[in-house]
Automatic annotation (TrEMBL):
Pfam families, sorted: Flagellin_C, Flagellin_N
Domain Flagellin N-terminal residues, every copy: 4-137
Location in the cell: Secreted; Bacterial flagellum
UniProt function note: Flagellin is the subunit protein which polymerizes to form the filaments of bacterial flagella.
Gene3D superfamilies, A to Z: f41 fragment of flagellin, N-terminal domain (1.20.1330.10)
A Gene Ontology term for the protein's cellular component: bacterial-type flagellum
Keyword set, alphabetical order: Bacterial flagellum, Cell projection, Cilium, Flagellum, Secreted
Protein name: Flagellin
Naturally occurring in which organism (per UniProt): Szabonella alba
Length: 511
């Protein structure tokens, strides 16, 4: 049946041509935009994923900028700390030269002052866009990544860089938690810090026959032997033996060691500042070894008598106690108070050395210091008083302060005297080590930042490639499809033309 109202063939040909034109328009859009998925209507799921990934790529661009800024900032700090290290080494050379007696210490001190001022100039100028990494103690966080979890949540990751304070400020003592129990003074008695030294008393028994006494006596690492009869004849008593023994000890001429006898008691005094003096005996006569000596400082003794303690007084710091940023400790004696406030990551060793530096910086006559560990591993600040003025030593501590600078004590370096030059040599070593550690830490941090920056660049490239795989058009395929669709379009037009001509045949029926 033919109809002039409904041309089914034309309708089919028209729908086919529309479909071809739609596909042709899509291919032309892919070719012009380069994307197979240019909008959500093309493929909603793929488009949504690609947009999330594109936002991540844009975020990583910002991260790359942050890392580059951070690397530049750390680079400035590293170069500044390396310069400070070199300047401190130059100061050490001056201090070493000042150890000699026949040098002009005044000129050396002037040179040290110039170098010290240069260090302060370097520290003050070591900033990048206002951020100085060698002043203060607050850590700095550098944005390093955006981490997307499987649930779609995003968290930022940071690279934390520790500031390395290379200033020389004294800090501020706090008023927080009391830390005094962490610092124990060896002798809290009044005037215990003096130059009298410590003594040991050896009491000889009245029951012994010293005419037969023979053996070896040792004090402070120096020994002497005595044969039978040298401590007295058969009729001599313990008082004579004590006097002879004291004389033999004095005759050794041991620095800081002296002896005296009162009756049967031999009193040995050691004025050694930082070194004990061991007292030992091997045999003293015909009786059983050691029985001729009844007591050392009131205690029963045998062959090894013991050790006379060093003259210096100690402040022992509890090895089990933590040291936090702002923990301050003070020692006082002779009307002077010395303070050190710890910074982040420091230990009791740093506290002891900081207090030593504070004391040495004052250049007090007759006062010398040492830092050492005791047999239990606790750090000790040793203070010796070689003046005629007796002093009382005390120590306290409080939390909540502001840390002293990493080069605390730099301002107090003085080589005007032999004692000050010796102290300066010890203290400068600690400053050099701190500057070296700062340089090394900055170097490690900068390397890590540069590695992360390189990774972020590669990760961005990988994300871009993944996005391109999902949404970019395959141009070879699009070109082939374009050619095919153009042919189909031409054929569709011809088919529609033929279909539209079919009603013309009906006219022939009415001629």
């Amino acid at each position: 049946m033919s109809s002039i109202l409904t041309n089914t063939s034309a309708m089919v040909a028209l729908q086919t041509l529309k479909s071809i034109n739609s596909n042709l328009a899509k291919v032309q859009n892919e070719i012009s935009t380069g994307k197979a998925v240019a909008s959500a209507k093309d493929n909603a799921a793929v488009w949504a994923i690609s947009k999330v990934m594109e936002s991540d790529v844009q975020g990583f661009k910002g991260i790359a900028d942050s890392l580059s800024l951070g690397s530049s900032t750390i680079s400035v700090a590293r170069q500044a700390s390396e310069s400070v290290t070199d300047l401190l080494i130059e100061i050490k050379e001056k201090i070493v030269a000042a150890q000699e007696e026949n040098v002009d210490r005044g000129k050396i001190q002037t040179d040290i002052g110039f170098l010290r001022d240069q260090i302060k100039s370097v520290v003050g100028a070591a900033q990048f866009y206002g951020l100085n990494m060698i002043q203060g103690t607050d850590d700095v966080n550098i944005l390093s990544s955006l981490d997307r979890a499987s649930d779609g949540s995003v968290t930022a990751s940071n690279i934390t860089v520790n500031r390395q304070d290379l200033t020389s400020g004294a800090g501020v003592y706090g008023s927080g938690t009391v830390l005094t129990p962490n610092a124990t003074v060896s002798d809290t008695a009044a005037n215990a810090l003096n130059n009298q030294g410590n003594t040991a008393e050896i009491t000889l028994t009245a029951a012994a026959d010293y005419s037969t006494a023979a053996g070896t006596f040792s004090v402070g690492g120096v020994s002497f032997s005595f044969a039978a009869g040298e401590l007295g004849g058969a009729t001599d008593d313990q008082d004579v033996a004590a006097g002879i023994l004291a004389g033999r000890i004095n005759a050794l001429g041991i620095e800081g060691i002296s002896a005296s006898a009162t009756g049967a008691v031999v009193e040995i005094t050691s004025a050694r500042a930082f070194e004990g003096a061991a007292v030992e005996i091997s045999g003293l006569g015909g009786a059983a070894a050691g029985t001729e000596i009844t007591a050392l400082n009131g205690d029963p003794v045998n062959l090894t008598l013991g050790e006379i303690a060093e003259r210096a007084q100690n402040v022992t710091f509890d090895p089990a106690a933590a040291v936090n940023d702002g923990d301050g400790y003070r020692v006082s004696f002779g009307g002077n108070t010395f303070t050190y406030v710890a910074g982040p990551g420091q230990s009791m060793e740093d506290v002891a050395r900081g207090l030593k530096t504070a004391i040495d910086g004052e250049g007090l006559d007759g006062i010398t210091t040492r830092v050492a560990q005791d047999s239990a591993g606790a750090w000790q600040l040793k203070i010796d008083n070689d003046t005629v003025t007796d002093m009382t030593l005390a120590a306290v501590g409080n939390a909540g302060g502001t840390a002293s600078g990493g080069l605390f004590g730099l301002d107090g370096i003085d080589v005007s005297t032999t004692a000050q030059a010796a102290s300066a040599l010890d203290n400068i070593e600690g400053m050099i080590n701190r500057a070296i550690e700062a340089s090394a830490d900055f170097g490690s941090a900068q390397k890590r930042i540069d590695i992360q920056n390189d990774f972020v660049g590669k990760l961005s490239d990988a994300l871009k490639a993944g996005i391109g795989t999902m949404v970019d058009a395959d141009m070879e395929e699009a070109s082939a499809r374009l050619q095919a669709l153009q042919v189909q379009q031409q054929l569709g037009i011809q088919a529609l033309s033929i279909a539209n001509q079919s009603p013309q045949s009906i006219l022939s029926l009415f001629r």
